[in-house]
Amino acid sequence: MPLIPGPLYRGLLRPILFSLDAETAHHLTLAILSMMPPLPVAPDPLELRIALWGMEFSNPIGLAAGMDKDAIAVGAWQSLGFGFAELGTITPRPQPGNPKPRVFRLPDHLALINRLGFPSEGMEVVAPRIEKIRRGGTRIRIALNFGPNKDTPVEQVAADYAALMTRLAPSADFVVINVSSPNTPGLRNWQSPERVREIFAAMEQAPAGARRPPILLKVAPDLDDANLDAICDAALTLHLDGMVVCNTTLKREEVGVGSAEAGGLSGHPLCDLARDRIASVYRRTRDKLPIIGVGGIMNADDALGHIKAGASLIELYTGLIYEGPGLIAAMKKSLANLLRRDGFRSISEAVGSNVKV
Ligand SMILES: Cc1cc2nc3c(=O)[nH]c(=O)nc-3n(C[C@H](O)[C@H](O)[C@H](O)COP(=O)(O)O)c2cc1C
Q: Which residues of the chain have pLDDT under 70?
């Protein structure tokens, strides 16, 4: 039984939340979720289980970065039925982010535009929170998403990622290098092979305790084919552990949205673009680099589409805003049915099945 069934959310709760400013509604929801006691979760259908990087995921559906930037509601993500949660973006030092308003709903498009600019309580506040969660034991996997501070000079950016690695690696099942947010000036320039090498080298050399977690790279959907191929080749050469494809887009008309509001666009209009980028990365890195597919997933069909394009895990954020917390339980049930319908015995069998060599 989903926690809050979709019709109840869409008919009652969503209109109340949508009557508030988007960021106010976000903080109110997070505050409520952070107080939620852990709830028993029904076991996941066996065909949704997947193993990656030597770890089991009981299902492939994850919370995308940005929803729980400061790791305040991890118990709730577990209770809602996620297989993993990507927390962050976390920056080394606290910072407020951009001036408000900075999150906008586009209900006709089932989309959001945000220009938050990494508001973060900083790693020294977030780290003990995650350590405490770890000590309590979690059923879901925890990924931590890292970004540099806005005022960090260019020559110190790699050192920011190294500092985050040292402080937070012991608490993470895997970590994500975020160089693809459109809202931190200059950050997307770090999506070049040379600069990724610089960040990765700094993280590799950083002391990180006994266990070095897998390191993934999150890319923007707006890279052209040549640049995306170059990043994929660098990721393979450097032996990165995977790619998160993709962050929000700066495109508007190309994805059928007319808004002039500045920032990154997420949600339904991003779905096809994200899927195209996932397939491009899969073609280039086939079997060597697991992909987390994210962008525009609103239901199980969208999730399976990203999986068939090459994603081993998928994540969502905007879908949760429009469909509510019951979405995850409903998606898991439908995804298992869709796999059976298409003759797949597991997620792994479906990964990349729509991508021609
Ligand atoms: C309000 C908001 C804040 C976000 N913040 C972050 C962030 O801090 N770090 C990050 O890597 N991605 C961030 N994202 C991007 C999401 O993780 C995801 O890549 C993107 O929204 C596409 O997925 P979706 O269509 O399911 O929302 C944010 C997205 C939204 C809507």
A: 1-2
